Structure formats: structure tokens, C-alpha cells
């Protein structure tokens, strides 16, 4: 078999995610030689800058996609929420494996839930989506920006005693097997925090004409996860969203149907628009577009 070269970011979480894919491929193809190439992205180089100050879409994916387009790697592994909704025309998502828990997680040294915070408490997050949803429930909170990987954010939270908590993706915490015994933490329900579209899912990306690599990874695709993610991404795309946009979405498969919830803050809006819609799983993208259209009319 022809060797497979995989491209990934170099963070601990990214490499763990790449290894999950490699392990699953090796179980299916034990004779397949797989090599990993670590690629530094703009988001990694400018990890102290607020995301809004980095004028580039795909800040965690563009350099990896360029290596894929140039033939230096055969397969790119992305956290799907980082992948722009408009893909390069020569690239395709060839598989989406089963999703990890998509919820966000509250983490604090002293407070078990953001509802327990004192007025004017400081919460650190660099995500407009997370900040807006926290402030919607607790408009008295003070939000300060934070960047960096999971480990560095937890380290900063421990070191800065003025910060009362932060919010991280539960999927990353689970995949890394992090010890949170020195923190108080709890997953946030949908009433507090809808996740980013695609959160908890991985995207396995290939060149559109690379049928060999596509044939290898198609066995890793999980149909219900893919449908849920495509509904969420279609919702985001229809709203013109990216990492600077306050958009949350969660699609839940139930039998042959999807239940899609979404929340969106139009630019400079104080109050969000939100809604829920149910439709057939086979019509996932149309479902996402329909919910976005409904919210636009509110």
C-alpha cells in the first residue's frame, strides 16, 4: 500500500486527535505506513493575539490546507469548528468520525457554575460566542480575553486569582484526559451555552481528486455526526459567520431526524435571535439554511 502522510497542528490536543485517526486507520489497514507532519498555523504563531486582531480566515487551518494542495501531505486533520465554512474548490471533507461531546465546560477554582458568581466577577474567554451567552445569563459579569492552548489557559486561570473562571470545549478535555481535580467544573447545558458549529467533531480533508486517500478514510465516516455537523455549518454559512461571529448551534440526531438549535447575535446587536427546527437527517444542509433564514426574519 502507498504510504499516507498526515498533516496536523503541533498542539498536544491536535496530535492526540491525529493519533486517534491513525489508530483507527491501522486497525482497518494494518499494513498501511502512516507518517505525521506537524504544521504551524497563523493561530499558533500569534497565540497571544486576540483572534479578532488576526486578519485571516482559517487561522488554524490555512497552512495545513496549503501543504495539502501542494501535495506535501495526503490527509489533513482539523478540529472541524476551525475549518472555514467555504472550502477551497480543490479540497473536500472526505470523512467525519464519530463526534466527542460537543458541549462547553465551565472551569473555576472556587465556583461550581457561572450562576454562583458574585456580581462583577471576571470570566476569561476569547470567544464572542461564549462571552455573549454568558452575558446573556449574567449581564453583570466582566469578560476578559484569553488565548492559548488548553493547558496554558488552565495555567493562566490558576495564576490569576482575579479570574473566577473560564469556558473550554469539553471534547478537548476528554480527548486529552486532563486531570481537573484541582478545579470545580461542569458541562454547560444548552440553556446556558450552545456550542460552536462543528465543536467536538474532526474533519478529515483530502484533495478532491485523491480517490486513493478518500477510499482509505471513508470507513471512518459517521453518518449521523456528518449530518449534524453539515446542518450546523450550513446555519453558520448562511449567517456569514466565522470565528469572530457570535453563533452557536447544536444538531441532535434522533432516529432519521435532526433537531437543530441555533443562536445568533447580528453585528452590534444586544439581543440574540434564536430558534429550533426539526427535519430529516438527509436534508441536513437545507435544515441549517432554513433555520438561518427564520432567524434573519425575526
UniProtKB/TrEMBL annotation:
Pfam families: Porphobil_deam (PF01379), Porphobil_deamC (PF03900). Residues 4-214 form the Porphobilinogen deaminase N-terminal domain. GO terms for cellular component: cytoplasm. SUPFAM superfamilies: Periplasmic binding protein-like II, Porphobilinogen deaminase (hydroxymethylbilane synthase), C-terminal domain. It catalyses: 4 porphobilinogen + H2O = hydroxymethylbilane + 4 NH4(+). Keywords: Porphyrin biosynthesis, Transferase. PROSITE patterns: PORPHOBILINOGEN_DEAM. It is an enzyme of class 2 (transferase). Its cofactor is dipyrromethane. Pathway: Porphyrin-containing compound metabolism; protoporphyrin-IX biosynthesis; coproporphyrinogen-III from 5-aminolevulinate: step 2/4. Its EC number is 2.5.1.61. One of its GO terms (molecular function) is hydroxymethylbilane synthase activity. It comes from the Bacteria. Residues 228-296 form the Porphobilinogen deaminase C-terminal domain. One of its GO terms (biological process) is heme biosynthetic process. InterPro entries: HemC (IPR000860), Porphobilin_deaminase_cofac_BS (IPR022419), Porphobilin_deaminase_N (IPR022417), Porphobilinogen_deaminase_C (IPR022418), Porphobilinogen_deaminase_C_sf (IPR036803). NCBIfam families: hemC. Belongs to the HMBS family. Monomer. Tetrapolymerization of the monopyrrole PBG into the hydroxymethylbilane pre-uroporphyrinogen in several discrete steps. This is Hydroxymethylbilane synthase.
Amino acid at each position: 500500500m502507498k504510504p499516507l502522510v498526515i498533516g496536523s497542528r503541533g498542539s498536544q490536543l491536535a496530535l492526540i486527535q491525529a493519533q486517534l485517526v491513525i489508530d483507527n486507520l491501522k486497525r482497518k489497514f494494518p499494513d498501511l505506513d502512516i507518517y505525521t507532519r506537524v504544521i504551524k498555523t497563523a493561530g499558533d504563531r500569534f497565540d497571544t493575539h486576540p483572534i479578532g486582531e488576526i486578519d485571516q480566515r482559517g487561522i488554524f487551518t490555512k497552512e495545513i490546507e496549503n501543504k495539502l494542495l501542494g501535495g506535501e501531505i495526503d490527509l489533513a486533520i482539523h478540529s472541524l469548528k476551525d475549518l472555514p465554512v467555504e472550502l477551497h474548490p480543490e479540497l473536500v471533507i472526505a470523512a467525519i468520525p464519530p463526534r466527542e461531546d460537543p458541549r462547553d465546560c465551565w472551569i473555576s477554582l472556587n465556583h461550581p457554575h457561572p450562576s454562583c458568581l458574585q456580581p462583577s466577577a471576571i470570566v476569561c474567554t476569547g470567544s464572542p460566542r461564549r462571552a455573549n451567552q454568558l452575558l446573556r445569563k449574567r449581564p453583570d459579569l466582566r469578560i476578559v480575553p484569553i488565548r492559548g492552548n488548553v493547558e496554558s489557559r488552565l495555567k493562566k486561570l490558576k495564576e490569576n486569582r482575579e479570574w473566577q473562571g473560564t469556558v473550554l470545549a469539553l471534547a478537548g478535555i476528554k480527548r486529552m484526559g486532563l486531570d481537573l481535580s484541582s478545579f470545580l467544573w461542569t458541562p454547560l447545558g444548552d440553556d446556558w451555552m450552545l456550542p460552536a458549529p462543528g465543536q467536538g467533531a474532526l474533519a478529515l480533508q483530502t484533495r478532491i481528486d485523491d480517490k486513493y486517500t478518500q477510499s482509505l478514510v471513508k470507513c471512518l465516516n459517521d453518518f449521523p455526526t456528518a449530518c449534524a455537523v453539515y446542518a450546523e455549518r450550513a446555519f453558520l454559512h448562511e449567517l456569514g459567520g466565522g470565528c469572530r461571529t457570535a453563533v452557536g448551534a447544536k444538531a441532535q440526531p434522533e432516529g432519521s431526524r435532526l433537531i437543530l438549535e441555533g443562536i445568533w447575535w447580528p453585528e452590534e446587536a444586544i439581543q440574540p435571535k434564536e430558534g429550533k427546527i426539526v427535519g430529516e437527517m438527509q436534508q441536513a444542509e437545507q435544515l441549517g439554511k432554513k433555520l438561518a433564514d427564520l432567524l434573519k426574519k425575526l
